[in-house]
Amino acid sequence: MDTNYLVALGANLPSQYGSPRETLCAALERLEQLGFSMVAISRFWSTPAVPAGAGPDFVNACCKMRCNLQPRDVLAQLHVLEEEFGRVREGRWSARVIDVDLIASEERVLPDRDAFLRWQNLPQDAQQREAPSELILPHPRLQDRAFVLIPLAEIAPLWPHPVTGQSVMEMLAALPEAEKSSISPL
C-alpha cells in the first residue's frame, strides 16, 4: 500500500548539476527515477542560511510524494540521493550542495512518542552536538523552521502534526514574523 511522505529539500552551494536551484530540479527528477510518485511540489524559496552568516542563501522547497516503502527505506533512498549529488556531511547547519530531509510519513510518530519528545525538546546547544541514531518522525524541528513550513504550506497546509495536532498553517502562524519575512519566492 502506498504511503504519503513529506520531504524538504535545500541547497546553497553549486553541484555537478549547476546552481542550487538546478540541483533541486535534478533531485526532484531523480526521486521520480528512484520510484517515488510526486503528488505535489512547492515553489522554490530563497532563505537565509542558519545561523546567520553560515553561508550563501539557500534555495528550499518541499514535495509530497508516494511510494510503497517503509519510512526507514525512504530515508535510506534520500541518503543515497544526497551521496549521488555530492553531499558531504561536514557538520550540522553547514553550507551544502543538497539536503533532503524526510519530514513526515502521514501521521506516524517514530520510533515512539517519548523518543520524539526527547528530540523535539532538545536544547539548542545540544542540537549542535547531537544527532539521533534512528529515524525520528515527524521531523523534531519542523515547527521551528519557516524555511520548511512556508513551502510545506503550499502543498500540505492542513496536514496535522501527529503529536501537537497543529496544522502546517497553525505552526507557520505561530512563528515570529521576522523569521518568515526573510524568506521569499524565487
TrEMBL record:
EC numbers for this chain: 2.7.6.3
Alphabetical list of InterPro entries matching this protein: Hppk (IPR000550), Hppk_sf (IPR035907)
Pathways involved: Cofactor biosynthesis; tetrahydrofolate biosynthesis; 2-amino-4-hydroxy-6-hydroxymethyl-7,8-dihydropteridine diphosphate from 7,8-dihydroneopterin triphosphate: step 4/4
EC class: transferase
Domain 7,8-dihydro-6-hydroxymethylpterin-pyrophosphokinase, first and last residues per copy: 7-157
Keyword Nucleotide-binding attached: yes
One Pfam family recorded for the sequence: HPPK
Keyword Glycosyltransferase: no
Keywords: ATP-binding, Folate biosynthesis, Kinase, Nucleotide-binding, Transferase
Function: Catalyzes the transfer of pyrophosphate from adenosine triphosphate (ATP) to 6-hydroxymethyl-7,8-dihydropterin, an enzymatic step in folate biosynthesis pathway.
Family assignment from sequence similarity: Belongs to the HPPK family.
Protein name: 2-amino-4-hydroxy-6-hydroxymethyldihydropteridine pyrophosphokinase
Species per Swiss-Prot/TrEMBL record: Thioclava nitratireducens
